[in-house]
Design brief:
- This protein is 12% helix and 66% strand.
- It has two helices and ten strands.
- It has helices at 2-17, 153-157, and strands at residues 24-36, 43-56, 61-74, 77-94, 98-113, 116-132, 137-143, 145-151, 163-167, 173-180.
- It has an eight-stranded antiparallel barrel with strand order 1-2-3-4-5-6-7-10.
- It starts with a helix and ends with a strand.
Length: 181
């Protein structure tokens, strides 16, 4: 798994280095986590790979999509969810080094849970910040979510959240990188 993740990151970085100036960007997020509940000694492992591509329509407006996969193993239960998350981005503050933006999008994920098709969905807003390292590279962070997230019964039984409202906690902090070409 480590070799796969390292290869994916290196391939995207190589693509970014050879990119020309323009209005496309690509990047994404890779996460890995392992937790152990102290009371039950239940171990949970989660790996998520979310490549992203977008197009800047103007200086302040962009459209894009995340297309990826999330794998979670908790005890003997395993869950793999394929995700598609199209969005529209409005950048409301742009400086030489820092951009503040908000993404409005739709989340959709599908997988298998306990022999049934599990469907996760949502709609909402995600605020974010981009640190522009140079013309080609940016570090990006999204924090929080305002909207609705849910799923069908198999998805909920396998840990999919059902949330309405504003969620500003550290579990909703996502980091990534972008390459502009």
């Amino acid at each position: 798994m480590k070799k796969f993740l390292l290869s994916a990151v290196m391939a995207i970085m190589t693509l970014c280095v050879s990119a020309q100036s323009g209005s496309w960007y690509t990047g994404g997020q890779v996460t890995f986590g392992r937790t152990t509940e102290s009371a039950s000694n239940l171990k949970t492992t989660q790996v998520t790979v979310l490549p992203e591509i977008g197009y800047n329509l103007t200086d302040n407006f962009a459209v894009g999509s995340v297309l990826g996969v999330s794998y979670r193993k908790s005890g003997d239960e395993k869950k793999t969810v394929f995700k598609v998350n199209p969005y529209a981005r409005y950048t409301y503050l742009k400086t030489e080094r820092v951009d503040l933006f908000i993404d409005g999008g739709v989340d959709f994920g599908i997988g298998r849970a306990h022999g049934h098709t599990a469907v996760e969905y949502g709609i909402g807003l995600r605020p974010g910040v981009a640190l522009n390292l140079n013309e080609k590279f940016s570090l990006v962070a999204h924090v929080g979510f305002l909207g609705y997230q849910g799923g069908n019964r198999p998805a909920k039984h396998n840990g999919a959240p059902e949330n309405w409202g504003l969620d500003l906690n550290s579990n909703n902090l996502m980091f990534g990188f972008y390459c502009h070409f």
